[in-house]
Amino acid sequence: MTTASAASPTLDRLVDQLLRDESDVPWLGDFRRRALAAFSQSSLPGRRFESWRKVPLDSFELSSLAVPSDTGITIKGEHQCRVLAFRDVQDPDLRSIVERDLCEEVPADRPAYFEQLGRATYSHSALILAQPNVPNGRIELTHRLKGDGLLSHRVIVVVPAGAELTVLERFEAEAGEPLTCWLPHTRLVCGPNSRLNHVSLRSFSDREYSFHELCSDQERDSVLNTAIVHVGGHIGRTGYRARINQVGAEYRGIGIAALRGRSFLNTELFVEHHANHSRSSLLYRTVSRDRAHSVFDGNLYIGENVRDVDSHQTNNNLLLDRNARAESMPRLLIRAEKVSCEHGATVGEIDRDALFFLMARGLPEPQARALLIQGFLDSVLEEMPLLDEELEPVQKHVLETLAL
């Protein structure tokens, strides 16, 4: 087992530089030092953690990662909401949200390695506060990595009572770069009767590790829609914990993934219902070719004495080659009565009858296959809160990645 106790020179240099940069904000430095201390006592996730046992980390070496030469966040639409770096947060209520994000205890059944590494090394941060008087607010963040190295950043989105906001996060790195590792963390906070749409667009080369962590908390009658597009990558994992805390809240999570080569992607979703009259639904679809391997973990928890919950979970997988793999593992922990829960999963190849039908009408086989795959993914893509000029490039990029 690889331990973190022997810190790499790269990590030491990076953390020292970050501490110097925020020397005038001692409370942030204190949290960073605590995270570094916790990280030094952790080890790479192994088979003892159920949620990570499928993730192949044998070749991961933190010491092989450099300090990135050029990183940053580009923001568009910031005039529609308030955007602050963590160091600029003065309001006590907002600061308490930041502090929770930086020191929330990692459960004993989950590995601390990447979580504490991200807290110790984040170089960019953004607290986004929606404005109640801006209907249909929209903001776009582009996270950029140029050159090899480790990139960690943290984003918190707060939507107060009655506010509406759509957040689009893009992740971009130069193709063909040496080994890189992304450690993004996003927290979504939905106030009473608020509405938040969050879209994560990820495009990675076959030399990139990516370990995304997301979490959300919803209050009374809030509506949260999240969407993920994951394309390519070497080893990837998404962990998302959605907490529905108050009556009447609704959560909808959708996503697609396009994998090729030897890409590996593990998507773990954990939806927690802690309130009556709440709803949730998940729809995730993956297309894999070559030797790509996907794992979907869909977890549902409904607490004791919670009533009138409606929850649905669907995972569909399309395999384009004999050596491609897909695993789907729904897990339900229901401690309440009077709830409605459904889950379903499929793993299969292109429908031969549908393919024959299209070819019989004059379409060449490659074009017919591409049309069927596009239809499989577009039903999810078109549900995402993307503008037409945003959706079309995504559709094109997905098909190009799958060589269609």
Notable characteristics:
alpha/beta; 7 helices; 9-stranded mixed β-sheet; globular; 2 domains; 404 residues
Summarize the structure in words.
- The chain is α/β, with parallel strands linked by helices and 404 residues long.
- The longest helix has 17 residues, at 365-381.
- The protein has seven helices and 18 strands.
- α2 packs antiparallel against α4 and α5 (352-360) crosses α6 (365-381).
- The model has no long low-confidence stretch (mean pLDDT 92).
- The chain has a nine-stranded mixed sheet with strand order 1-4-6-8-10-12-14-16-18, with helices on one face. A nine-stranded mixed sheet has the order 2-3-5-7-9-11-13-15-17, covered by helices on one side.
- It folds into two domains: 9-349, no CATH class; 352-404, no CATH class.
- It starts with 8 loop residues before the first helix and ends with a helix.
- Helices cover 22% and strands 43% of the residues.
- The protein has helices at residues 9-21, 26-40, 92-103, 113-121, 352-360, 365-381, 388-401; strands spanning 70-76, 81-84, 124-130, 137-146, 149-159, 164-173, 180-190, 195-204, 208-218, 223-232, 235-244, 250-259, 264-273, 279-288, 293-302, 309-319, 325-334, 339-348.
Per-chain topology:
Blueprint: H1 9-21, H2 26-40, E1 70-76, E2 81-84, H3 92-103, H4 113-121, E3 124-130, E4 137-146, E5 149-159, E6 164-173, E7 180-190, E8 195-204, E9 208-218, E10 223-232, E11 235-244, E12 250-259, E13 264-273, E14 279-288, E15 293-302, E16 309-319, E17 325-334, E18 339-348, H5 352-360, H6 365-381, H7 388-401
Parallel strand pairs: 3-5, 4-6, 5-7, 6-8, 7-9, 8-10, 9-11, 10-12, 11-13, 12-14, 13-15, 14-16, 15-17, 16-18
Antiparallel strand pairs: 1-4, 2-3
